[in-house]
Amino acid sequence: MNILIKKIIHAGVLFISITLFSAGMSTNLIAAEDSAKLYKKQCKKCHGKKGEGKKFKKEPEKFKYAPINELSQDELLESLNKYFKMWSAKNWENKKEKKMAKATKKLDDAKIQTLAEFIVTLNK
Ligand code: HEC
User: What is the DSSP letter of 65?
Assistant: First the structure.
């Protein structure tokens, strides 16, 4: 094969690899930013900025909203999936469960995954 053609092919392959690589990088960055935003918008008002939970004003020894920043990623995934299913089936046992189930109504698998990954970083 002509050496010039070889060089052109090489340059092309290199260019495509770099483009794909940077596209992958920016998707990751966007995901990290999105999860923080998602948390702030949909979870923070009950579970707190750092996932520390919220206690009752009148009974400061009791949690009104559970702390979630000490759960593992697997526990978070399991829990969020449980509430997500609860909401789809409209099937909860009490008001507290209903509150949390409703909080998952705008989520999907990808968002649940990204939130679980984000929440474990909150107490670091
Ligand atoms: C309207 C208030 C409210 C919002 C908003 C909310 N939660 Fe909750 N969350 C609760 C309540 C109440 C419980 C306890 C439910 C129960 O008793 O089963 C809970 C429980 C949880 C648990 C289980 C805790 C444990 O110890 O098992 C996780 C995990 C959780 N929430 C994550 C989230 C995430 C992530 C978001 C954002 C998508 C969110 N919550 C938004 C009220 C809320």
Answer: E
What is the model's pTM? 0.81
**Residue 72 burial by Cβ neighbours in a 10 Å radius (0-12, 13-18, 19+):** exposed
Q: Helix (H, G, I), strand (E, B), or coil: what is residue 55?
A: strand
Paired strand residues for 54: 65
Query: Can you state the angle between helices 109-119 and 3-42, rounded to 10 degrees?
Result: 80
* C-alpha 65 – ligand 1 centre gap (Å): 7
Element at 63 (helix H, strand E) = strand 63-65
Report how far residue 101's alpha carbon sits from residue 124's, in angstroms, rounded to the nearest whole number: 27
Residue 112 CA: nearest ligand 1 atom is 35
Contact 67, 47 (CB under 8 A): yes
* Segments making up each domain of the chain, as ranges: 3-119
pLDDT in tens, 36-67: 999 999 999 999 999 999 999 999 999 999 99
**Residue with CA at minimum distance from ligand 1 atom 9:** 100
Could you say which residues of the chain have pLDDT below 50?
none
